[in-house]
Amino acid sequence: MKNTIEYYYDLIIGKLYIENNVYHFKIDNDDYYFLPFLYDEKTVNKIIEYIVFLKRKNIYCHEILLNIKKSYLTKIDEVNYLLMKVHDKNRQYSLFDMLELNRKVNITFDNYSNNWTILWSKKIDYIENQISEIKIDKIINSSIDYYIGLAENSIYYVNMINRDYLKDKPVLSHKRVYFPNTQLNYLNPLSFIIDLEVRDIAEYLKAMFWAKDDAYGELQAYLKTKRLTPYSYNMLFARLLYPSYYFDVYEKVVNNHENSEKIIIFLNGVNEYELFLKKAYKLISSYAKLLKIDWLIY
After folding, report:
1. Residues 169 and 49 in one domain
2. Do 48 and 130 lie in a common domain?
3. N or C terminus of the chain: which is more exposed, having fewer CB within 10 Å?
4. Looking at the 3D structure of the chain, how many domains does it have?
């Protein structure tokens, strides 16, 4: 693969690393990632539009490089790859850096239909079919019902909120926001999606909680700083309720990319996360009326 990348991009590469089918190398102070891309040229061009738009706002995403054929996609063994150049990949963004970037971007999208519940329902159906057909793992088998239950609570919550409230316009968001929130992920244009701003906030807070940092204190600071609509206050809580952290690791375990012991942190922290949810519910309720959830009210 090293010779192939050098040929298609007219580069001279030192050491080439690979992890989960992603190739990584460094040239000077920049990192390069050569990775499979499952979509077509039209999708790449849409991503390039976002990159160009953000550049005009002085926000510099990772650069997707053209190959010697002037294409963003390089086909190898019938698989499309693209090469991404990343500068300063370890720079970290706080929650308030995220708000400032959103302010600078200042773009919303029309004709948006929130589809969280559709995606979540499909995920639950898929997992239930999967675990009924194969015995996956003792740790997963002992925990999956609880997290499916949390997800079903989240689905009910979002359905009720979408029924009762006028929806907010979405913004440029991310599939996942992690903690620490490094530039490697946060300015990765392949991670961009169109969704509610509170999606990123909730995912960041969940990641912060499981990193043993002060997610509740960060939530307090966020709510003092940012005024939301009643709809977004509710959707923020719904996203905190949904256990994306568990399902993300579950998928990696099933695909043999992680050991199931990675799930133990969630099992050991169940009570603490439920307490965090109860405190978050009470806090957000002081800003807007939230849908009643009996087991969280105390």
Report:
1. no
2. no
3. C
4. 2
Q: Which structural domain range is residue 82 located in?
A: 2-87
pLDDT one digit per residue (tens) for the chain, 298 residues: 999 999 999 999 999 999 888 999 999 999 999 999 998 889 999 999 999 999 999 999 999 999 999 999 999 999 999 999 999 999 999 999 999 998 888 777 776 667 899 999 999 999 999 888 766 788 998 999 999 999 999 999 999 999 999 889 899 899 999 999 999 999 999 999 999 999 999 999 999 999 999 999 999 999 999 999 999 999 999 999 999 999 999 999 988 888 989 999 999 999 999 999 999 999 999 999 999 988 877 5
Say if residue 63 is in the same domain as residue 111: no
CATH number at 21 reads: 3.30.200.20
